[in-house]
Amino acid sequence: MTAEQSRKAKRITLLTLREVLLICAAITLLFPLAYMLICSGKSSAALSTSPFSLPDSWEQIVANYTSVFTGKVSTGRVEIQLFTPYLTILWNQIVLVAAALVFMLIFATPIGYCLGKRQFKGKKLYMSFVILTQTVPLFGYLLAFYYLMDLMKMTNDLFAIGLIFSATSMPTSIIFMRGFFEGLPKEVEEAAKIDGAGELTRFFRIILPLSKGIIVSIALVQFMGYWNEYAISNLLITEPELRTISISVMMTAGDTGGNYPTYTYALLVMSALPSLIFFTIFNKSITKGGLAMGSIKG
């Protein structure tokens, strides 16, 4: 075998191994989703006797998903309101995440701009403080969050909890914003200053349009963290009508949800649907945003 043939055979072997690994990874990721989808259309009896069989009937599928949308489960001859209706928890989740994103962007963008483009006393100390907050695990904040929110009578308030969400992600957002603004050419802002544009005019009419890419990227990345957050929501939300998707899903892991597996699987499917739609729409933006933030000058 010649050297060229040897290189070609090695290349084919590596490519084949790569494809096999990718297929195995895809199967590993898709199998739980497929199993969840199949089980969401079956009865409790079928789940116990034949967990890998196809759904029983169209009527059973409709009944299971109707239970998710109404929050009612059957206990034999009667139905009881045991869970929060799906549209309610979806709306709560959207309100909470939207509030968190708005608060995060309102505060992180100007702070990142000041740290990246302005010189002032205490700047290094402030940056050190921002970085230091990243070393404290989330659970180190939880009790402080709870006592503070309870003292201010702000538990079970989606907008207030959204503010807590934004506070936990603020250091990361500020660090990325600062790195981006440091890399912006100062000549653009100086030219506007010569033309008579004030500080606020330059920020809103020049800096923000130029920063649209990084702002969207950070918002998309933080959205994923906000959407899947559970610990803070579970601690600060106690009223059933204010439950979010993450709380409702975790409730199915307890005794109550374990008694109604058909509801559990249907809820899991409906809980995954918004994330699936989100990733489908913003897949390219998330990928480009992650690459852009990874290459930002710190």
Distinctive features:
298 residues, mainly alpha, MetI-like fold, two-stranded antiparallel ribbon, 76% helix, disordered C terminus
Please describe what this structure looks like.
The protein has 298 residues and is mostly helical. Strands 1-2 form a two-stranded antiparallel sheet. The protein has a domain at 101-294: Orthogonal Bundle (MetI-like fold). It has helices at 3-39, 44-49, 58-70, 86-117, 123-133, 139-151, 158-183, 186-194, 199-210, 212-228, 231-236, 245-251, 255-258, 261-294; strands spanning 72-74, 79-81. It contains 14 helices and two strands. Helices cover 76% and strands 2% of the residues. Mean pLDDT is 83; it is low at 290-298.
Helix content: over 70%
Written as H for each helix and E for each strand, in order along the chain, the element string is HHHEEHHHHHHHHHHH
Which shape, going by the Cα principal axes?
Answer: flat
Strand content: under 5%
Gap between N and C termini: 51 Å
Q: Overall pLDDT, averaged?
A: 83
- What is the CATH topology descriptor of the domain at 101-294? MetI-like fold
The major sheet is characterized as: 2 strands, antiparallel
CATH superfamily of the domain at 101-294: MetI-like
The total of beta strands comes to 2
Rg for CA atoms: 25 Å
Number of helices: 14
**Named CATH architecture of the domain at 101-294:** Orthogonal Bundle
CATH class of the domain at 101-294: Mainly Alpha
The stretches of 5 or more residues where confidence is low (pLDDT under 50) are 290-298
Class by helix and strand content? Answer: mainly alpha
Lateral arrangement of strands in the main beta sheet: 1-2
